[in-house]
Amino acid sequence: MQPYVGNGAFPGTCQAVGAADDCTFGLIVTQLIGTNLTESPLFHSHLEKLGNLNSSSLTQQACLSYNGKNVVNLPASLPQFSKEDDPTRILSLHCNIYPKEDICAPLPKT
């Protein structure tokens, strides 16, 4: 992987391939290195509608990639930042998983 991603080479590899970082990573692993990727229901692309995920399983997910208005739906029972402060709800989710992080101090308590 070193020639494709090491020493800051990854952005150039993405540009040369003409694909987003996740697609380029998959191409490097499968085509250039010759290793199969493992599909997992715990990884979610920014192209996937995060609002369709079961809100009770959000804290068990390995990766939630979001983009713009693609937001997660948190259960109303969880403390949340205002939609103005956290329009994607990712910060609120993060702080419910890791409440002791400094950035989470202003999170309203229930």
Automatic annotation (TrEMBL):
Domain Fringe-like glycosyltransferase intervals: 1-89
Main location: membrane
An example Gene Ontology molecular-function term: glycosyltransferase activity
Record key words, sorted: Glycosyltransferase, Membrane, Signal-anchor, Transferase, Transmembrane, Transmembrane helix
Location in or out of the cell: Membrane
Gene Ontology cellular component list: membrane
Coiled-coil boundaries: none
The protein's name: Fringe 7
Annotated source species: Phallusia mammillata
